């Protein structure tokens, strides 16, 4: 895509705000079942997939973050936008959990604020969530003791942010299409190698490695591909979508690892760029808050013991509390760190005023 194409109307009027919220709520609902173990909620895991939702997030990131870098006047400008968008709310959630969860800890207060507590704060503020996922005495009776097990994707997202300047430099220096295809294929090969190693050895560690970088890079690159070739995608969108639906249906029965990331990207970006549903961004961007808040909210509700034998009350409470918290997080923390020219600052209907191109969002 050349710079003139950055003014493409679909980049100004799209469904990305709504799409990200739906993906975040999908992850929330699936985790509500997985963490609670309520048999009545099993159908959620059958109808929805947190894994696919996360992959779709990476597709959207590939499209929007590459666009953000291409639109940025400098590396400093790009980095500033990324930090403003992801870190204030992230840091607020880490510190809020670390300080307030003393009230639900089974440890005395003097043992709670310990070296383990400090390790949790430092590790999680640095996106090293795997280093210390638990707080002293917190959620020990829950199915899983981790405070916020959804944050592993934020580490990958940050690594995407760091890698984009290098990727774009290479795309400008060398033929873009062969590089996109090469990186995509190498990512798929790595993920498949880790899956094979996990099956052969029975060690789940290899499967976890496959979910990290570069295993998720194929989804990001698929999103970047459709950004750079958006005019071509738009001209042939009908054929792209038909092929993507066919691949997705076959993938349910016979794994097509080489084609599935690109097929998912086509379907995700078709919804994001076509069938415009209105300027949802005028209400705010609550998806990030939903994503980083839902896990500790669910853990707190389960820890309370109030919902034993009442799965649907639990599900409603988890979803509504998370959504309310995300609205609060958006208005009190996230929005205050946005630049004045952000799409979300004073967002209006496109018919009332010229809407700036949306800044990319994070998970």
UniProtKB/TrEMBL annotation:
<dbReference type="InterPro" id="IPR002656">
    <property type="entry name" value="Acyl_transf_3_dom"/>
</dbReference>
<protein>
    <submittedName>
        <fullName>Acyltransferase family protein</fullName>
    </submittedName>
</protein>
<dbReference type="GO" id="GO:0009103">
    <property type="term" value="P:lipopolysaccharide biosynthetic process"/>
</dbReference>
<feature type="transmembrane region" description="Helical">
    <location>
        <begin position="262"/>
        <end position="281"/>
    </location>
</feature>
<dbReference type="GO" id="GO:0016747">
    <property type="term" value="F:acyltransferase activity, transferring groups other than amino-acyl groups"/>
</dbReference>
<feature type="transmembrane region" description="Helical">
    <location>
        <begin position="48"/>
        <end position="67"/>
    </location>
</feature>
<dbReference type="InterPro" id="IPR050879">
    <property type="entry name" value="Acyltransferase_3"/>
</dbReference>
<dbReference type="GO" id="GO:0016020">
    <property type="term" value="C:membrane"/>
</dbReference>
<feature type="transmembrane region" description="Helical">
    <location>
        <begin position="237"/>
        <end position="256"/>
    </location>
</feature>
<feature type="transmembrane region" description="Helical">
    <location>
        <begin position="288"/>
        <end position="306"/>
    </location>
</feature>
<keyword id="KW-0808">Transferase</keyword>
<keyword id="KW-0012">Acyltransferase</keyword>
<feature type="transmembrane region" description="Helical">
    <location>
        <begin position="18"/>
        <end position="36"/>
    </location>
</feature>
<feature type="transmembrane region" description="Helical">
    <location>
        <begin position="312"/>
        <end position="333"/>
    </location>
</feature>
<feature type="transmembrane region" description="Helical">
    <location>
        <begin position="87"/>
        <end position="105"/>
    </location>
</feature>
<feature type="transmembrane region" description="Helical">
    <location>
        <begin position="178"/>
        <end position="201"/>
    </location>
</feature>
<feature type="transmembrane region" description="Helical">
    <location>
        <begin position="213"/>
        <end position="230"/>
    </location>
</feature>
<feature type="transmembrane region" description="Helical">
    <location>
        <begin position="112"/>
        <end position="131"/>
    </location>
</feature>
<feature type="transmembrane region" description="Helical">
    <location>
        <begin position="151"/>
        <end position="171"/>
    </location>
</feature>
<keyword id="KW-0472">Membrane</keyword>
<dbReference type="Pfam" id="PF01757">
    <property type="entry name" value="Acyl_transf_3"/>
</dbReference>
<keyword id="KW-1133">Transmembrane helix</keyword>
<keyword id="KW-0812">Transmembrane</keyword>
<feature type="domain" description="Acyltransferase 3">
    <location>
        <begin position="15"/>
        <end position="329"/>
    </location>
</feature>
